[in-house]
DNA sequence: CGGTCGATTGATGCTACTCAAACTTAGTGG
DNA sequence: CCACTAAGTTTGAGTAGCATCAATCGACCG
């Protein structure tokens, strides 16, 4: 099996044949490194290509007039950062590297030809965007009806599972090198409050998080606290 | 131009030819009425068909163990309630009629054949699901970083624009026959607080809402309060 | 006319925000 | 090797927003 992040990711959910795999790979530009905080796609632009994340973490960022900042999605290795711009064209938010990251791009005209010649691949890519939407809905549930603590726990459960699907988790440890300020902007809380919730999770013995490495110490209890059900991530394989 | 809600909706964003329109229409089951609060799709099911809303309002509903209830999306006439189940299969939430509604269904095997024979229609439907995701992201921004009042105002702005695209707005008035409890579950606040925020908007002269009819009295000021930018709804036409 | 549903109002307390300061860590240049 | 700086984390104090509980009111309905 190929070790390319994109193929790795898509193959978790559906079988790709050799033709499809080589076609996907052939469309990708050479990889490029991004510095932390680099804006990879800017609000208001209509790029003409989509960007694939090869390693690191990126986030969709919306900034409000009063300075409020909300991260609406985290992308992990193998995720498209802005596949939706293929159909949506204009970006209504920007995409930023949350830590050092590596990306490659695919031109929209190539994607378009692919969707016309390979309907199965089109459905597989469509599936990726619907999973993004399912994750969005869980975040809405979290922000609307979960307690702060459960919300943070849910984020860690979700990130753990998504990184695991991307083969980036070793014994319940994974790289999570973001700031507490970013964490607050993900959860819709202040940095100070994020810090205090983190301390609760730590003293409860649920997680450890030092040097950018997150360790899940009590997976079962963390899931219970978060009311986490991985169904929405569709981690199992079934033909699309 | 056809007056079918689906065609009306899709044609706002891209041109459909006669062949595509009649194909879409031919796939739809006969319409069916739903009572308020009826569960149209249940959590955990894998329907084998998707449901189109012809009139009324429906919502995606997630219920938590502690009784907390969150509505993660509102659907209006012409929207698919669960198009994502075409690729996602299993429902991780239920879909409920928020008021009297009318629906029709499309079998997934028919959708699949359509996406293989008509790539343009596939992209148009894909676009619909990416717009859903864009709306989700705005809700995340609202719940995370907008004040309660701005959040409610933003919902009304968004709903106004979406219903307008579905030709359901007459002189800034539209049918919005939901309860304040549902409104609270949409915004992630208590019924009591929803009531109080409503009073603020009313006494500020921004809206009127009686007998299930919402009247936007000061569109400009409402948009300003909400920081509403309709870009994400992609209401303009551009080929996909 | 009682019953149910939804809207409204009041009182009380918790959650999380804001402001502000101290502290820790890593990186930089003398 | 040691200031010095900048970025990020941690702590404290006061406060605003919103939840919760509880009661009332109005409209509709059998």
Describe it.
The structure is a homodimer of 240-residue chains. With 240 residues, chain A is of the alpha+beta class. In chain A, 44% of the residues lie in helices and 20% in strands. The first copy, chain A, has helices at residues 5-11, 18-27, 85-88, 108-117, 119-145, 148-165, 180-187, 191-203, 219-226, and strands at 32-34, 39-41, 49-55, 58-63, 69-75, 94-97, 101-107, 173-175, 207-210, 213-216. In chain A, a hairpin with a 5-residue loop joins strand 4 (58-63) and strand 5. Chain A is globular, with a radius of gyration of 18 Å. The model of chain A has no long low-confidence stretch (mean pLDDT 95). At the A-B interface, strand 5, helix 4 and helix 5 of A face strand 5, helix 4 and helix 5 of B. Chain B binds a DNA duplex (30 and 30 nucleotides) through helix 8.
Entry summary:
The structure is a homodimer of 240-residue chains. Chain A is α+β, with helices and mostly antiparallel strands and 240 residues long.
Which helices and strands, and how do they pair?
Two copies of one chain form a homodimer.
Chain A: H1 5-11, H2 18-27, E1 32-34, E2 39-41, E3 49-55, E4 58-63, E5 69-75, H3 85-88, E6 94-97, E7 101-107, H4 108-117, H5 119-145, H6 148-165, E8 173-175, H7 180-187, H8 191-203, E9 207-210, E10 213-216, H9 219-226
Antiparallel strand pairs in A: 1-7, 2-6, 3-7, 4-5, 4-6, 8-10, 9-10
Helix pairs in contact in A: 4-5, 6-8, 6-9, 7-8
The structure holds a DNA duplex (30 and 30 nucleotides).
């Amino acid at each position: 099996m190929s070790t390319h992040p994109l193929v790795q990711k898509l193959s978790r959910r559906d079988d790709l044949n050799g033709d499809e795999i080589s076609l996907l790979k052939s469309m990708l530009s050479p990889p490029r490194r991004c510095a932390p905080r680099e804006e990879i796609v800017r609000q208001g632009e209509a790029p003409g290509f989509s960007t694939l994340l090869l390693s690191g973490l990126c986030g969709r960022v919306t900034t409000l007039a009063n300075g409020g900042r909300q991260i609406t999605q985290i992308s992990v290795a193998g995720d498209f950062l802005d596949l939706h711009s293929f159909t949506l064209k204009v970006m209504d938010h920007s995409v930023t590297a949350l830590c050092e990251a590596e990306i490659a791009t695919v031109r929209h005209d190539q994607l378009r030809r692919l969707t016309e010649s390979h309907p199965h691949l089109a459905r597989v890519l469509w599936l990726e965007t619907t999973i993004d939407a399912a994750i969005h809905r869980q975040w809405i549930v979290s922000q609307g009806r979960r307690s702060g603590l459960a919300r943070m726990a849910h984020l860690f459960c979700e990130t753990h599972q998504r990184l695991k699907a991307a083969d980036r988790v070793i014994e319940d440890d994974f790289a999570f090198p973001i700031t507490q300020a970013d964490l607050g902007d993900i959860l819709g809380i202040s940095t100070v409050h994020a810090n205090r919730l983190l301390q609760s999770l730590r003293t409860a013995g649920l997680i450890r998080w030092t040097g950018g490495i997150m360790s899940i110490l009590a997976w079962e209890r963390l899931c219970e606290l978060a009311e986490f059900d991985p169904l929405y991530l569709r981690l199992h394989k079934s033909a699309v």
